[in-house]
Amino acid sequence: MSVEALSMVLNHSKARGAAKIVLLGIANHLGPDAHEGAWPSQERLAAYANVSDRGVRKAVSNLIELGELRVAVADGHSRDQYKPNRYWITLECPPDCDGSMWHRRVELSDTQGGTFEQSGRNFSTVRVEPQFLLNSKETVENRYTNRFEDFWSAYPRREAKGQAFKAWRKAIKVHNQQMIIEAAKRYSESYTGEYQFIPLASSWLNAERWLDEPPPAARKAGPVTVMDLYADEPCEHGDPMGEARCPLCRRK
Question: Do the beta carbons of residue 97 and residue 12 sit within 8 Å?
Answer without folding.
Answer: yes
